[in-house]
Structure formats: C-alpha cells, structure tokens
Model the fold of this input.
Amino acid sequence: MSTVQTVPLVPPRRSLAERYPALRRFLRHRAALLGVGIVLFMTLLSFVGPLLMPFNATDTDIRARLAVPFAGPHVLGTDPLGRDVLARLMYAGRISLAVGFAATALSVVVGVLVGLVAGFYRGAIGAALMRFVDAMLCFPTIFLLLAVAALIEPSVTSIVLLIALASWMEVARVVEGQIRSLRERDFALAAESLGASDSRIMFRELLPNAVAPIVVAATLNIAHAILAESYISFLGFGIQPPTPSWGNMLENAQSYLTNAPWLAIVPGLAITLTVTSFNFIGDGLRDALDAKLDR
Amino acid sequence: MARYLLRRLLQSLLLLALVSVIAFAILHLAPGGPLAQFVATGDLGTEDVDRLMKQYGLDRPLPIQYLDWAGSIATGDWGNSYRDQLPVLKKIGMHVGPTLELMVSSTLLAMFIGGMIGILGAVRRYSFFDHLATIGAMVALSIPTFWFGLAVIYVFSVNLGWLPAGNRETIGDGSFIDRLQHLVAPCIVLALVSTAVWSRYMRSSMLDVVNQDYIRTAKSKGVPAMQILLRHALRNALLPMITITGLHVSTLLSGALVTETVFTWPGMGRLFLDSVSNRDYPVVMGMLMFTACMVLLGSLVADLLYSVADPRIKGASK
Done:
C-alpha cells in the first residue's frame, strides 16, 4: 500500500447508472423496464389520449351499437349503447389508475405509521398492533371489501378509502419487521444514547433506512389495488356507471360474450397488462434495492 | 409438542376474538346500519323501524349488542337471516359443500401442475423453460380471475361447446359425469393463481434442497438421478409446501367468490354476494366470521402438520 496513486482533480464524468448501482441493477431487469414502458404508455393513453379522441366516454350513438373493432371510426368498437370502447377505456384508465395510486398512497401512510410504532415500541403496544394486523389479515380480501362496499355510498373517494382499508396490513408487516431489526443496530442505539427523542429516531434514523422495502411493497400494492378495484366494480359494488372504470366496463361484458367479445377482451387486457407491469416493476425494484444480492 | 399445540390453539382463539370485534365494529359503525334500506325506500314508517330496531335488539348500546352476539356465536346460535328467517349456520352449511368442492379440486390441480412446473424449473434452472415459467407465473398472478373465467367460457363453452358455461349440474341430470363436466371450467379458473404460487415456491424449495449435503451424498454413492429427484429431493422439498397450502386459504376463498359469480356456482361466494346486496346483516357477519375461521384453521393446521412432519421444529419450539 505504499504506491502513491495520482488522483485526478476532476473526477471523470460518470453516467447515472454508474453512480447508482441500484439503478444499474434495475436497468438490467428487462421485464421491469418493459413494465415501466407499459405503465407510462397506459398513463399517457388515459390522461392525454382523451384529448386526441373525437368521442368521449358517455356519447351514445344508437346507429353504431355494438360496432365491430377495426372497422370504421370506432377503433376498438362500441358497446350496446353505441359508446366508443377506446374512449371509455381511456377515461376508465384515469379512474382505475388514480384509484390504484391513491389507495396505495393511503395504505402506505397507514402501514408505515403502524409498522413504525409497532416495531419501535415492541412490548405491549407493538404486540397489540401486530395482533390487530393479524386479525385483519384473517378476512379474505374480497369478502372484507364487499362487506364494507355494500354499506357505504359508492364514490371514487369511498372506493379509495375502502381499498386502502383492506390493504395497509402487508405494508405494516414489512415495515415492522424492518424497524425491529434496524432498532438493534449501532446507529439507532447511538442516536438513543445521545438522547434523541423517540420520534426523531423513528422518522430521521430508522425510517430512511427502511425505504427500499417500502418502495417495493408500495409498487406491488398498486398492482393489488388496481385488481381490487376491478373486482369490486365487476361485482357491481365499486365505481358506479356512468363513470367508467376498467372493472365496471367488464360488468355487463358476460352477457355479450357471444356477439361482442371485444367488450370483455379490451378492458381485461388493459387490467392484466397494467397489473403485470407493476408486478414486474416491483420484482425489478426488489432485485435492484436488495444490496445483499450484489457483489 | 403438546405445549406447542396448546399455545398455538390459545393464540388462534385470541385472534378469533379480535376478528369478531373487528367484524362487528365494521358492520355496525358503518353509516346506514342494518335497517338503512327500509328507511331509504320509505317502505316503513318511523314506528315500524323503531319496532324492528327493538325486535332485533338494535336499539341497545353497541358493546351490549356485541357481547350478546359473541355469546350466541360461541354457543352455536349464529342468528337468523333477515330475509328468510333461516338460521345463519344452516344457510352457510347449505353452501359450504360446493365451495369446498371447488377449493379442494383446484388445490389438487394446482399442486400437481404447479409442482411439476416448479420441479422442472429447478432442475433446468435458468433454461428457456424456467424463464418462461417465471414470466408465466407473474402474468397468472396479474390476470383478474373473473376475466380469465370469461375467457374460459368464451373459448370452451361459446366457441368449442365442450363445457357448460355455468351452474353445478344440469337440472334433472346431476349424475357424476354431469357434475364433473360442470366442475372442470371453474376448477381450472380458480386453480390459476394457486398454480402460479405453487410453481414459484416449489422451485425455490427444490433449489434449497438440491444444495443439501444428503443430496451430494446420494449422488456420490451413485443413486440414479431420477431416484435422487423423487426419493431424496422431492420428499424434503414438499415439506415447506404444507405451510404454503395452509396460508393460501384466504386467497382461495376470495378467488372462489369471484369464480362462483362468473360460473353461477351455488357456493358460499354467491351466498355472500346475495346477502351483501340485501344487507342481510346476520348472514354477512356470520360469513365474515366463518371465512376468518377457515383462514385461521388453515394456518393452524399447516403449522401443526409441519411440526409433525419436520422433527426439527419440536426442538426449536419451547
């Protein structure tokens, strides 16, 4: 170690991917990249697409009822009321994506708070909170969603609250596990011995170190939330017509399966593509952020 | 072992009590309440509603109502349906058979197909097949169950005409073959997610086992590859899968509800959906409790089976 190395005064320019190994690992995950592409496409389609469309989601054209896709002005055909399926898909995408993101944001906030408190104050408070999480997880998700959905006035906001209510527990479990082990680490003990307050240790020391698994859990949560919206809307308890959502577009598709299968194919494909993409992104993020696997 | 069993049993009972509080709270604190639909439609006057409130005991304080309800549940009286006055347990009993039929058959199918895919993926790790199985499992987990159901109906019932599009049996027939024909499509639809889950866990479980010393020992003493795979590796890799099956009950019940709706299958999912639509509170509450019990029982049985099957657990547990 006696050789003197000449260190250039100006560090060589390095690309983003070189500076952030996690980003480099993520970029190697081809399925996750494809997922990002599809999610971007779906978002653009839903939020910008309607501006370019000559039809909107509620215009009915009785003369063009059940028009076949790829023939005429209605690219993806029309439904039994003569509404353009592509336009409906776009407007429905706004609702379904927004519900997915909003419900996830909410369940991450609740899950993080519960997990943080439970992991930090292990004893009685932690045990009580985690048993509550366990009890909530005993209800099969769709049963829980439907039981509550039937009691509330269905609206976009109430559906968001409902899905968040049924999905914060996974995040709480992830966070609790992380915080519980981080709490024993030297940096947390050091902060404690320096007299840092509980909330400072929780939010400034522990939480930043648990961001990676939270990001992964949140990404997968978006996938679950979009699926959950489609399930309850399909069953008639979610987003109510005439507001279109990917789920409620499928609500009546079953009765037209014989003569208008595109009514089922189009929205179902949109859900599957989007949910698969979020699942792949979550997978890619897990590989990228789990530094233990690297080197 | 007995102490472990007792402790797990106590834990489950405590959890069940907590579950009942949550179920009760959700349904009684939500706006509306059990009689909301009568009030909203104006079918009943104020006096009638008051009389009904008294009759069902809904005018008492919530904690009292809860204790009363929990007490009856514990003694086997789950109340009567608001709709047809039938006892809730009897109603559930009438619908649990078809759902179990669906759940058990699709689990067996998923174990077989998912298990095969997982083993092949582990044996030919990173091969084209392995990658395809990985992507396939991810897509299978992302497809909405009802949409897959519609696709199966479209292909096999509408176009090919091979399978009936719904119901559990043809009215007036009901022979074994007829019932089997009706079971195939919903069974496949419900098995999709479980197959994906099984294939993933089977693969990683096999990979864990393959690297163990006893496999190397078997190889070095010249045991044929196929025999190592089946006798030594598979038997041990199946152990953790017991747990997966037990923990999967919740997902399976949710999937069953959706599958039953698409295939008009007369099971618990249909009963629940009908009860929810009619705000039949005693049935909804009863079914929330019943399904939660099934989920709890699933994880309890999985834990116990695992501790019986794997002698190492006995030492580990106090």
